[in-house]
Amino acid sequence: MSQDRLLRLKCKDCKNANYYTSKNKKKVERKIELKKFCKTCKKTTMHKEAKITG
């Protein structure tokens, strides 16, 4: 059974979810933060891990 977990990345400025990714639940314990381009803000901002609801 795979230990990967699907999650989304939300822009810290506008709070829009722009990217989806996965991470290994057993190996990575802290929240992911990546610098990505936000289409809404039209600039590169920090994106933080958020749970997928639903």
Describe this entry's structure for a reader.
There is one protein chain. The chain has 54 residues and is mainly beta. It has a single domain, classed as Ribosomal protein L33 (Rubrerythrin, domain 2), CATH 2.20.28. 0% of the residues lie in helices and 56% in strands. It has strands at residues 4-11, 17-24, 33-38, 43-50. The chain has a four-stranded antiparallel sheet, with no helix packed on it. The two termini are 22 Å apart.
CATH class: Mainly Beta
How many distinct domains? 1
The CATH superfamily is known as: Ribosomal protein L33
CATH architecture, by name, is: Single Sheet
Quote the beta fraction. Answer: over 45%
Record keyword descriptors for this entry.
mainly beta; 54 residues; elongated; Rubrerythrin, domain 2
What is the compact description of this entry?
With 54 residues, the protein is mostly beta strands. The protein is built from no helices and 4 strands.
Show the helix and strand layout:
Elements: E1 4-11, E2 17-24, E3 33-38, E4 43-50
Antiparallel strand pairs: 1-2, 1-4, 3-4
